[in-house]
Amino acid sequence: MTTDTQDVEALVARTKVEAEDLVYWLRTNGTAINFKAADFIERQHTALRTLARERDEATEFAAQMTTRWKKAVAIGNKVGDRNAALEAERDAALAQLSAGVGRRVRHKVRGTTYDVLGEGEAQVSIGVNNSRRLVEGDTMTVYRCVETGKLWLRFPDEFDDGRFEVLTPSPEGRDGKEVRS
Predict the structure, then answer these.
(1) Would you call 29 exposed, middle or buried from its count of C-beta atoms within 10 A (0-12, 13-18, 19+)?
(2) Which of 68, 111, 138, 163 is an S-S bond match for 122, by CB 3.0 to 4.6 Å?
C-alpha cells in the first residue's frame, strides 16, 4: 500500500471517530445546534466516502494500466524477436551478395560456365598433399558447373584471382545470351 493510500485511510478513520464523538455529545446535550452539526457531519461523511471511492477507482485504474503495460511489453518483445530474426536474415542475404552469391562466371582457360552458390567452411580430417593445405575452418567458395551440375570448392582468393570472368544477362534479356562484364 502506498503512503498516499495509508494517509487517506488514516484520515477517514480519525474523522469517523471524531464525528461519532461529536454526534454523541450533541445527542446527550439536546441543544438546538444538534441538527446543524448532524448535517455538517453527514456532509463530511459523504466527502470521505467520495474520497475513498475515488481512491478505489484510482487503484483499479492503476491495476488496469499495469496489465495493459505488461501486455504491451509482451507484444513488444515478440515484435523485437521478429525484428531480430528479420535483421539476421537480411544480414545473411547481404553477406551472400557481398560474397558474390548468385553470380554466373566462366573459367577463362576451359570456357566452362559456373553458378556461384556461396561460401562454406571446410571440415577436414586429413590434410591435402599439395602446395596449400586445407585446414579445419577454412572458408571456401562453392560453385556448380552449369553443364554437369557438379559442385566445386576453391579458396576465395584463388576464385577471385582473375581465372574466372563474371557473366551478366544481355541488356535486352530476350535472346538469353550472356555478355562479359
Answers:
(1) exposed
(2) 138
Q: What is the SS3 assignment for the chain? A: CCHHHHHHHHHHHHHHHHHHHHHHHHHHHCCCCHHHHHHHHHHHHHHHHHHHHHHHHHHHHHHHHHHHHHHHHHHHHHHHHHHHHHHHHHHHHHHHHHCCCCCEEEECCCCCEEEEEEEEECCCCCCCCCCCCCCCCCEEEEEEECCCCCEEEECHHHHCCCCEEEEEECCCCCCCCEEEC
Question: Where exactly are the structural domains of the chain?
Answer: 3-95, 100-180
Q: Give the Cα separation of 106 and 70 in Å (integer).
A: 58
The owner of cell 555478355 is: 179
Answer positive or negative: Cα dihedral of 114, 91, 88, 93: negative
Q: Render the burial of 158-168: b for 16+ CB within 10 Å, e for the rest.
A: ebeeeebeebe
Tens-place pLDDT, residues 74-103: 887 887 788 888 888 777 776 666 655 677
Query: Do 157 and 137 touch, CB atoms closer than 8 A?
Result: no
